[in-house]
Design a protein that fits this description.
elongated, alpha+beta, about 25% strand, three-stranded antiparallel β-sheet, 2 helices, four-stranded antiparallel β-sheet
């Protein structure tokens, strides 16, 4: 008998375990296909009269409920942004449906400016810290798109947005919105 090392013994054990799992799966599939074949043969043995009676009963019975099948557009690509939600016809700026995830789902009028971060001394870059109604913070830069606009400029005390609004006729117009940083408690305006 050959003396195997510890690693070789383990490898052979796992190889045997894998082969037995494959064999059990193969046998299970063979049994399932055999039982499917037996069921098909049993179905074929039924007399034609019973089949005709069943088909007549089915025609006169109440319609059967169908199972849910997703529509063609239900399985969307998870790596593409969903289309913006539909808008209600009465109020053109009211939102119907869920908003897109992340910063693309932020509505400018609902945002609160929490702070501004200054990065770098030689080449200053500013980041706006904005909070949504759920009090979730977002760190946004210039040219970051939002649901109904884009950030155009960030200064040490305010953030400028270019907001798109639909009027009553359905035309989209843009205007500038400025959100100023509120003074800290005890600080003069």
């Amino acid at each position: 008998m050959v003396n195997l090392g510890k690693n070789q013994t383990r490898k052979r054990f796992f190889d045997l375990l894998l082969m037995s799992a494959v064999l059990v799966g193969w046998v299970g599939m063979a049994r399932a296909s055999a039982s499917d074949g037996a069921a098909a043969k049993e179905k074929a043995k039924k007399p034609a009269a019973k089949a005709a009676a069943k088909s007549t009963a089915k025609r006169h019975a109440a319609p059967a409920q169908t199972s849910f099948r997703p529509t063609e557009g239900a399985n969307r690509d998870p790596f593409k942004l969903p289309p913006p939600p539909e808008e209600v016809s009465g109020n053109q700026n009211e939102i119907l449906g869920p908003l897109p995830p992340g910063s693309r789902g932020l509505i400018i009028e609902q945002l609160k400016l929490e702070g501004i971060v200054l990065l770098g001394k030689n080449n200053p870059k500013m980041i706006a810290v904005l909070a949504n109604p759920a009090n979730r913070a977002y760190f946004l830069h210039v040219n970051d798109p939002l649901y109904n606009g884009v950030i155009t400029k960030i200064t040490p005390d305010s953030v400028y947005f270019n907001e798109d609004v639909k009027d009553a006729e359905g035309k989209t117009t843009s205007h500038e919105v400025i959100k100023k940083l509120a003074p800290a408690s005890g600080e003069k305006k």
